[in-house]
Amino acid sequence: MKFFKVLIILVIFQNCSFDNKTGIWKNENNIEKVEKNIFDELETFSAIKQTFNKIIPFKENFKFDTLDEKINSKWYDFFYNLSNNSENFKYSNTNQLIFKSKKITKHKIGDYILYDRGNIILSDYKGNIIVFSIKRNKIIRKINFYKKNYKKFKKVLNLSVDGDIIYVTDNIGYIYSYNYIKDKFLWAKNYKVPFRSNLKILDNKIVAANQNNNFYFFDKKDGEVLRLIPTEETIVKNKFINNIAANNTNIFFLNTYGSLYSFKKNDMRIEWFLNLNQSIDLNPNNLFLSSKIISYKDKIIVPTNEFLYVINSKNGSIIYKKNLSLLMKPLAINNYLFLINSNNLLIALDLEDGNFIYSYSINQKIADYLNTKKKVADLKNIKIANNQILVFLKNSYILKFNLNGELEELNKLPSKIKTNPIFIDKSILYLDFKNKVSIID
Asked: Nearest to residue 195, comparing CAs of 162, 244, 265, 250?
């Protein structure tokens, strides 16, 4: 009898271990329906080479240069700025919830939010553009451009802010502008083919691309086409969305066919282009997949489903490529590249020569920190703040690594994270799964 009592106690103790209580591992807490990785389609359509899965310890004699910290006050672009790159943000790091709003919309929202002068700007799939004032703790604008014939159509809006004006492209084929201070639509054009890219505001121009891989320069004042540049079209559409980045002189466009284009800002002409599709059979049916590209100094960083490319932005020559399939957009800071690959490895590279500074398993680092068995974590986003690498998990944990790749802290956010987080005035802002604004100090 005593034996059975002891056995029962042991079973209960094992099932109530700290590991099972954390909810940190993938599928332990079912927050939402499973989100497919952008590269999941490759299991059906192509065979990828074995991606990099090697642990490389940090060399103790290596020392990172000091990173400048940025107290950020605006977020006008889905990917923060024209280059799509991030910075070393200043963050209070108290992990305290200092603000929580009521539900902003009952409809599903996109993954990105913007911020302008105390206002959070977002859209939902009904086509509503919502401006929420944090100071007043209420919605100050909620407008919908679309007529009744689009009522049941799922609207995907790409937004960018410039001054008082929100510029929009959508998956119907419209481009329009709205002054949210004056509550007035300024102009609207319908180009019939759905837009399928982020958009960038460049002085007096707007640039965007449609699902046929046509690249547009629009006049910012009225939405008229200044120049249209057709590029290779793909017949089969996948999850990859055309991506645009820019620097002071050029615009870089990666299309769904796998071609990277460089356009001059001023005369809107092609300076060079390069195809990165690794398929032997280069035809319009091939699927090419990538994360967002980054413009950094004289380089373009292109993460694809098979390789990480570092490309000379002046002439399009490939400086080097690495067998790294990435889960998300990497970060380029101080000539270092911080990234997470599809094997959940946290990797630091010397951006100049491509040499590895270190490569560590995030799953193993979590297991070591918790003193438990290794499982698989579901990763969402990577940022740098306070000279730490912050890895956001889909179940709302934040992993805080030092620049050397050591896990120093593991915190759970006070509310569950839905949108990609942004950093404003030393705080983290996002919307949770109930479409409520959260601000974490």
From this structure: 244
